[in-house]
Write a structure and sequence with these properties.
The chain has five helices and no strands. The chain is mainly alpha-helical. The longest helix is centred in the middle third of the chain and has 31 residues. It is elongated.
């Protein structure tokens, strides 16, 4: 026998409606990834500054900023192109990746190595930021709601479509 708090009609006052696809996930992913990389970089920079020297801490931050800029550009491009041309976003990612690799290499080559840069801490900061960024990005992507099928609103339910096909046979 149904109880008053759980009526037999199937309507339950505490049920949450199903949500649709995530509209534009790129900025949310960018925020989560940047937060994860930034927090780790700040902790590592403080440890480097205390353990070695203040330039070591700056080296960690410099490596982290380069990594976050490198990965952040892709997510920003995904945000702006994903709205207008979602199917073309993957091609744009590939082109952007090539431009970023050449661009960042050129900037680092032409700037040279600053005298204050501690190479070991720079590498450690960059590597730790890459790992933190990628873990946060994968975790954020795994929580996206991406529809697999394009169900037309107002169309017949799948069972009705199957019944119509079997009647005409």
């Amino acid at each position: 026998m149904p109880r008053p708090e759980r009526p037999a009609t199937g309507a339950h006052p505490n049920l949450v409606q199903a949500s649709g696809a995530t509209e534009s996930p790129w900025l949310g992913i960018l925020g989560r990834s940047a937060a994860a990389g930034g927090v780790l970089a700040l902790v590592l920079a403080a440890a480097a500054a205390l353990a070695t020297s203040p330039p070591a801490g700056l080296s960690v931050l410099f490596g982290a900023v380069l990594v976050m800029a490198f990965f952040g550009i892709s997510l920003l491009i995904g945000h702006f192109t994903g709205r207008t041309n979602p199917s073309g976003a993957l091609g744009l990612f590939a082109v952007t990746y090539a431009i970023k690799v050449v661009g960042f290499a050129a900037v680092l080559f032409f700037l040279g190595t600053p005298g204050w840069l501690d190479r070991t801490w720079f590498f450690t900061g960059a590597l730790a930021t890459v790992i933190a960024w990628q873990v946060a990005e994968v975790a954020a992507f795994s929580r996206l709601r991406t529809p697999l099928y394009d169900d037309a609103p107002g169309g017949p339910p799948p069972a009705a479509a199957v019944e119509r096909r079997s009647e005409g046979s």
